[in-house]
Amino acid sequence: MGYQASKALAAFLEELPKTETHLHLEGALPFHFVHAMDPERFPQPPDSWADSFRFRSFAHFEEELLTMVAQYHSSPERYFESAREIFDRLYHEEHVRYVECSFASGVLEFVGGDGPATAEAIKRAAPPGLEVRTFLGIHHLGYNADTARWIDESVDWQHLDGVDLHGPETDPLGEWVPRLWARFAAAGKRTKAHAGEFCGPEFVRYALDELNVKRVQHGVRSIEDSQLVQRLAAEAVTLDVCPISNVKLGVVPSMESHPVRQLFDAGVRCTLSTDDPISFGNRLHEEYVALHQALHFSIPELGQLAANGFSVADLSEAEKASRRAEIDAVVARHVPQLA
Questions:
Q1: Has residue 1 been placed in a domain?
Q2: What is the strand order of the sheet 215-218 is part of?
Q3: Which of 79, 127, 179, 245 could form a disulfide bond with 275, CB atoms 3.0-4.6 angstroms apart?
């Protein structure tokens, strides 16, 4: 979004341990893979990388995204190759130490993919030192006669850590959703849901009450209901927020008006992630810079956002405490230069 870090801020972000807890693996495909696949059709990155670009609708976004990525993700090996580069960059360039990423049931359905092998390939792509957790993202209409069997079986996939509800929030939902989410929870796996992006607080309430999730992807329209905001804070629900995505998709009119500032101030636990970088042209550091410059998040507050990601991570309590202590030390070193 045109936000450029000062030398001091860049140095802080380079040292700050971070998480990516809202990352669509297909949507994070490095563009050069797309270019190599069809250089005539994709000679350069999409116009949506421009700072001023705004998608007309969610359907416009989905059409562009799937045009670029659906054909590529045709096998577990393809997922491995893209994930390896995605994870290496996050680890070495953005100091990310923990990732929660989803892969789409709709893509598996489209290409006839092998779900268990795909989850295993993604895990195998992580470099030493990076913890990766995989989620099967299922859109509202994704459970059908062709997919029901293997979606039901996904609870038992060895390398799958959880499930996430994807797709347009306005599409209807069947009774299979709460049933499947309950099965994942009973199996000790993690559950998430996209809500409060294009639908308002009522869909966030559905995710909390019917799916029993404690992790809401986006959730920013919760700000429209003060009682819901209070509930999110009181129940320690985490919103995995992607500010640049929200601006480019028109969920909010500008970064300066993004409700993450109000949600954070109200005690709602928020994390920062990039969502679908191939569509938005964003990197994780840019999300932090945007909040610092447009919404006046202080260095300790940026540190708190990073720490929030580790607090909800699927890690041991000792590992979480170690990362939080590391963040505190990094913040303390850099506050004098950035005060």
A1: no
A2: 18-24, 96-104, 131-139, 162-166, 190-195, 215-218, 238-241, 269-272
A3: 245
